[in-house]
Write a structure and sequence with these properties.
There is one protein chain. With 270 residues, this protein is α/β, with parallel strands linked by helices. The protein is 41% helix and 16% strand. The protein contains twelve helices and nine strands. Helix 9 runs antiparallel to helix 10, helix 9 packs antiparallel against helix 12 and helix 11 runs antiparallel to helix 12. Bound molecules: adenosine-5'-diphosphate (ADP). Adenosine-5'-diphosphate binds next to helix 2, helix 8 and helix 10.
Length: 270
């Protein structure tokens, strides 16, 4: 598809996303973008990686194309494929190709989930070539000058089998993310949901306890995303205790003992 047929505006972020910086990540990202360095954002799920990339795309005024990666994803899902329609076959660009053509920031979320043959298609886009070969179509796409590739990666729960290859890793610069420190995380929850700061601080306290259980029965601690969910339920008038059980316990564990420990913590706080 010629790039002029793509509706670029749909990928533009028009409203400033709320993002609370926790260090110098904004300046670091801006420098990486200025050099068009590929960036890997690393950290546990729900700690603000995607929000950060949305914010940066808005700040840099670049379109953002996000792809949630999964294990069934093939290279064609990223690059494109021929489709059959009434007039015969028609090539349809995949999201990575669209991003390369229009000069978007392409954010591959949880890229390690994708199969390795999928991961390698990004290689020529990440080095000096900045090209994307569409083998099936016999076309070599030269990336637009504004194009940048970003991947997210959660080193925590991946098995060794699913780790990214060094040959892929070493094509990226990296920014480490983690749950924001207590007072900042409470401020994020309050700002994001409109809940009062006292409630936000209590939720953060529960989060901190659960994060200590990581590796002792929990694969991942309670994310900022889930604390935000709990705050939203409380804002709807749900009793805080019930809100926490729904948002902070049920989704993260099937283990009765761990659930009991978490419920005990909630009872002590609310
Ligand atoms: P992930 O790291 O999995 O990409 P998200 O970026 O989706 O996580 O963050 C999950 C939620 O946590 C966001 O929707 C937002 O409500 C909240 N959040 C986490 N960190 C921040 C932050 N620094 N500023 C604003 N919101 C944040």
């Amino acid at each position: 598809m010629p790039s002029h047929e793509i509706d670029v505006l749909q990928y533009q972020i028009t409203q400033e996303p709320y993002y609370q910086p926790t260090g110098n990540e904004v300046a670091l990202y801006e420098a990486a973008y200025a050099e068009r360095l590929p960036v890997m954002v690393k950290g546990p799920t729900g700690c603000g990686k995607s929000r950060f990339i949305e914010y940066m795309a808005w700040k840099l005024k670049k379109p953002l194309i996000t792809v949630a990666c999964n294990e069934d994803m093939t290279a064609s899902d990223l690059v494109g494929r021929y489709l059959l329609d009434a007039n015969g076959t028609r090539w349809l660009d995949g999201p990575l190709t669209v991003a390369a053509r229009i000069g978007a920031i392409c954010y591959l979320d949880e890229v390690v989930e994708a199969r390795q043959d999928t991961t390698v298609v990004i290689h020529p886009l990440t080095d000096h070539r900045r090209t994307l070969p569409l083998d099936k179509k016999g076309e070599l796409v030269n990336a637009h000058a504004d194009f940048q590739l970003v991947i997210s990666y959660n080193p925590g729960y991946q098995s060794l089998m699913k780790d990214l290859k060094q040959s892929t890793k070493q094509r990226f610069s990296g920014l480490n993310f983690d749950y924001a420190e207590g007072a900042v995380e409470a401020a994020i929850i309050a700002k994001e949901t409109g809940t009062d700061e006292d409630t936000a601080a209590k939720l953060v306290k529960i989060g901190a306890t659960a994060r200590n259980l990581k590796g002792h029965g929990l694969d991942e601690g309670i994310s900022t995303r889930l604390l935000v969910y709990a705050a939203r339920l409380i804002k709807q008038g749900i009793n805080p205790n019930a809100a926490c059980r729904m948002a902070l316990v049920a989704p993260i564990t099937d283990d009765a003992d761990i659930a009991a420990t978490l419920k005990h913590t909630i009872d002590a706080v609310f």
